[in-house]
Amino acid sequence: TQDYNQGGSVRVFDNAANIFVPVKHVRVKARRFFKLANTYTNDNGNFYISKKYRKKAALIIKFENSQGVKVRGITGALKVWEYIQLLEKECGMFERSALTNAQLTVYYSTNTNSYAALQWTAAHCLNTSFDMRAYCQARGLPTPQGMNVWISSAITSNAAAPMLRAMTGSELVKAVEYMFPGAAATIIKIVRRIVPDVTMRLNGTMRTASNVSETFFHEFAHAQHYFEVGPGYWVPYIGYIVANRGYGSKTTSGAGRVAVGEAWGFFIGATFNEQKYSSLSNNIATRHRRFLENQRRDDAVPVAFDGTNSRGWIPWGLLHDMTDVGEPTATGINDQVSGYSATTIFRGFRASPYATTVPSLRNNILNTNGFAQQTQVNTLTTSYGW
Q1: DSSP H or E segment with residue 39
Q2: What integer pLDDT is reported at residue 177 of this predicted model?
Q3: Residue from 10, 31, 229 nearest 127 by CA
Q4: Residue 25 has pLDDT above 90, yes or no
């Protein structure tokens, strides 16, 4: 009787570009009774398992990748096992020659309370993690790795990067109670051991793949920032969001730290997602470009976007304007800065003392870049209301 090696590909449906895309570097597990084997897909979503199986074996997608990003899916506050085990998808039993060319597909689901929806979101999360690494490496930016991600239809807030492993004691309890409203005390005890770094909540109508990837780019950018500044910076950041149940107002004490951190999140989220979709959907890429280029100062709201023009007191447009040439007249922004990049801007986020206001971020950027275009950078920052 012939023995067969298992191989094939893993793909997920992108409902924004209306195509199937490979799931990159996700773990695939083969199982037949007590005979187990694991591997990861490659850049093209293909996998090969060297261990041979006779007649048939089951294939399972485990939603973690080779960069140490682990995804848990939670459908109920009291389903304790979901907090502990990784999200997975059992793809069925494959027999004989089908073992050598198995196509594992993760489909889109509109039912946000289903495991299918969690699996679909997790596949795009891992793809975004892979793309984040590639885009950062191309720019010489540090890459966040080894993160716990929770995707939930039941308990988490919309999306956040609490980096809860930085928390201890009462700060952790307060953060958990905010991130997971209604969680029982026993759940809080459990998550102390497996607390998430990044969370996403599936609400109502399912998001598109482009929304999901932009959100994860944004949250991974926060993780990138955290790994530079550490818990001493991050605990007050999360504490502010917990106390104000969001971004608060521009005049709220501590809002400067939010303006700094969220500016990087929104900037990277839109910049990287524009790059991701530039070859998949011109409409999506254009939308992200408009979000970055068309920001107007608005001291009354933190962030708003109508698909063409954006506004808010969080200055993501400031960071973008430092990298581009020119400015749409309608924004009212005085932008004479060019020649900076995401890499040279991030020097300002990494510099000590860490920036807790937009002016201190501006000073850090200038200090770490030889005061390039100092007058123009000062004018641009003032134009955004800082």
Answers
A1: strand 35-40
A2: 65
A3: 10
A4: yes
Does the structure show a pLDDT above 70 at 35? yes
Nearest to 120 by CA among 154, 169, 159, 71: 71
Distance CA 265, CA 263 (A): 5
User: Tokens 């100062």 identify what position?
Assistant: 297
pLDDT of res. 54: 72
CA dihedral 155, 161, 167, 172 (to 10 degrees): -20
Residue with tokens 């799931």: 23
What sign results for the dihedral spanned by CA atoms 354, 356, 360, 361? positive
DSSP codes of every residue in 154-186: SSS-SEE---GGG--HHHHHHHHHHHSTT--HH
Please confirm whether the linkage preceding 353 is cis (ω < 30° from 0): yes
Taking only the tens place, the pLDDT of each residue in 114-158 is 999 999 999 999 999 999 999 999 999 999 888 999 998 866 667
Q: Closest by alpha carbon to 212, among 21, 6, 349, 366?
A: 21
Q: Is 178 a residue whose pLDDT tops 70?
A: no
Alpha carbon distance 179, 212 (integer Å)? 19
Encoded tokens for 351: 């510099």
Specify the pLDDT at position 167: 63
Quick one: angle between helices 185-194 and 169-179, nearest 10?
A: 110
**Distance from C-alpha of 320 to C-alpha of 333, rounded to nearest angstrom:** 12
In this structure, the dihedral spanned by the alpha carbons of residues 136, 138, 140 and 141, taken in order and rounded to 10 degrees, is -10
Q: Which amino acid is at 237?
A: Y
Question: Distance between CA atoms of 344 and 348, rounded to whole angstroms?
Answer: 8
